[in-house]
Amino acid sequence: MMNRSTQKNWYVVTGGPSTGKTTVIDLLQKQGYITTIEHARHYIDTMRNEGHSVEEIRNNKRKFQLGVLDMQIEQEASIKAKDIVFLDRAIPDALAYYQFLKLDYDEKLIKAIKETSYKKIFILDRLPFTKDYARTENKEDQKIIHQLIIDVYKDLGFPIVFVPVLPPLERVKYILDNV
């Protein structure tokens, strides 16, 4: 495990595409917890508002990954270490996506990874894959990305809790019971 200088009260909710992360995060927020947004979708929405198509945005893989990474770094830098926060994905997820896209790691990503600190990682078991305007992956990609995310967090030495497929409120309860 890398040297994690500051212990933070942050919990990551992650998994491959279409695993229910945002639904769980939204329910945690409704229960009064501090949560974060998922940056890939936010980046796509921001670029679409500037007149770019999803295909155009996703085709420039490195620019897309760096745009998302910049947002994630900025967001995590703005959170107080003592606050209990549930993050919709976190900086290490970028490692999995870089691997999936066969991109070399950027210096910015390597530096950011060295500074990460999370209390626990909640990896949501996969749900049936559903496509939407922001997703370019398919069911096979979902499986590969999901496993890459598991491998990344294991390799980094973070404690992982696997969250089974349950109704959304039961998933939230499962997470809170394992905080």
From TrEMBL:
Highest taxon of the lineage: Bacteria
Gene3D superfamilies linked: P-loop containing nucleotide triphosphate hydrolases (3.40.50.300)
Pfam family membership, one: AAA_28
Protein name: NadR/Ttd14 AAA domain-containing protein
Domain NadR/Ttd14 AAA: 11-164
